[in-house]
TrEMBL record:
Domain ABC transporter: start-end pairs: 5-237
Homology family: Belongs to the ABC transporter superfamily.
An example Gene Ontology molecular-function term: ATP hydrolysis activity
Protein name: ABC transporter ATP-binding protein
Length: 237
């Protein structure tokens, strides 16, 4: 498949700290690309630069031939590049359904939106059963599901996720990865940032390994899973 989004020589700093030191990465249309690495490698920083929440000091983000680098976050969302909200930042005093409707608030296609609502409820049946309940009463894993579902309601062309499995119980982690795979099978392009290297590389067609702000390995997810350097550094013996 063709390249839908390109990160070119992206560099991001916090004052004097160079967190991301010129990385390049291609997202292929309809595929999951995993960006993996240890704590502090620069994964979140890279993602925040793609979604416009941090301004890079150098480099470009090009989506479908358009340069997104200098656009505001809401403009990047309007182009279809949507990040799942950080830290499960859902609106706890609203109901599950209201959170989902907010995810699609910029859309004018009401009938299509209702179809997508039915679709996200089929992806996450537990959200359907809690539709009229307050989002704040959901468990951590359910809130993470709601955050993903809400992002899907914006009808993204590219979905960006920052460690969706963080802090979740093993069964819930399995469930999240299963759904990401299912979402991808509908053709949606995904950039998945993860410290859970094994699970991420299992579902990703392509993977990049980030260390100290630089990409040190790039290959298919499958090859990376069997790469001795990856096994030694991230997967254990
Ligand atoms: P994690 O999984 O812990 O989020 P990460 O790979 O996403 O790790 P980043 O959060 O992108 O890494 O951090 C990259 C580097 O930038 C680290 O050295 C971190 O200490 C530094 N950093 C991150 N956020 C800030 C900030 N707001 N101010 C200063 N330095 C920061």
């Amino acid at each position: 498949m063709g390249v839908i989004l390109q990160i070119k020589d992206l560099a991001v700093s916090y004052g004097h700290i160079e967190a991301v030191k010129g990385i390049s990465l291609d997202l292929h249309e309809g595929e999951i690309t995993a960006l993996v690495g240890a704590n502090g490698a620069g994964k979140s920083t890279s993602l925040l630069a793609v979604s416009g929440l941090l301004k890079p000091v150098a480099g470009q983000v090009v989506f479908g031939g358009k340069d997104l680098t200098r656009l505001a976050p809401h403009q990047i969302v309007q182009h279809g590049v949507v990040q799942v909200a950080e830290g499960r930042a859902i609106l706890t005093t609203l109901t599950v359904r209201e959170n989902l409707e907010l995810g699609g608030y910029t859309r004018k296609d009401r009938p299509e939106m209702l179809k997508d609502l039915a679709w996200v409820f089929s992806l996450f049946p537990v959200l359907k059963t809690r539709e009229d309940g307050l989002a704040g009463n959901l468990s951590g894993g359910e809130q993470q599901m709601l955050a993903i579902a809400r992002a899907l309601m914006a009808k993204p062309k590219v979905l960006l996720l920052d460690e969706p499995s963080m802090g979740l119980a093993p069964l819930m982690v399995q469930e999240i990865f299963r759904v990401l795979k299912e979402i991808n099978q509908t053709g949606l392009t995904i950039l998945l940032v993860e410290q859970n290297v094994r699970q991420a590389l299992k579902i990703a067609q392509h993977g990049y390994v980030l260390e100290n702000g630089k990409i040190v390995l790039a290959d298919s997810g499958k090859n990376l899973l069997h790469n001795p350097k990856v096994i030694e550094a991230y997967l254990g013996a």
